[in-house]
Write a structure and sequence with these properties.
Distance between the termini: 50 Å
Number of strands: 0
Shape: rod-shaped
Order of helices and strands: HHH
Radius of gyration: 33 Å
Helix content: 55-70%
Number of helices: 3
Structural class: mainly alpha
Strand content: under 5%
Number of domains: 2
């Protein structure tokens, strides 16, 4: 916060040798106060920028949540396909009713893999974050 106007010495900066750390009048020098505020603002912006970049890098390396959800759905589809195929093998009189369900599950699986290609290879936790 800048001191009141009357606390500044008019024109003191005209005699400045830029050794502010040795000067007794830094609290009364407008240039020193403005430079200090600028430096603090700049350092805060740089800190925020660095934090944003670190966060971006961290989240970029994580698998997408949609891939995790689609991986769970894919496992469910594959288990359902396995079960319906067993029914198809042993329930000959119901094959005409079961076949469209199996076809639908295959189409659903293909659509899921097309939309979420990472679903088949999704791992949690990621390899580099697994507990040892």
């Amino acid at each position: 916060m800048e001191p009141p106007e009357e606390n500044f010495i008019p024109g003191i900066y005209n005699y400045c040798d830029r050794w502010c750390e040795r000067c007794l009048y830094t609290d009364r020098c407008r240039v020193f106060v403005m430079e200090k505020e600028f430096t603090e603002t700049y350092e805060a912006e740089q800190h925020h920028k660095k934090s944003r970049e670190e966060n971006r890098k961290f989240y970029k390396d994580l698998p997408k949540d949609s891939e995790g959800s689609s991986s769970v759905a894919l496992k469910g589809i594959e288990k359902s396909l396995g079960a319906w195929n067993i029914f198809y093998q042993y329930m000959e009189e119901e094959r005409t009713a079961i076949a469209p369900l199996i076809t639908l599950l295959f189409l659903l699986r293909a659509g899921l893999l097309k939309t979420f290609p990472g679903a088949a290879t999704f791992r949690w936790p990621p390899k580099d974050q697994e507990p040892e």
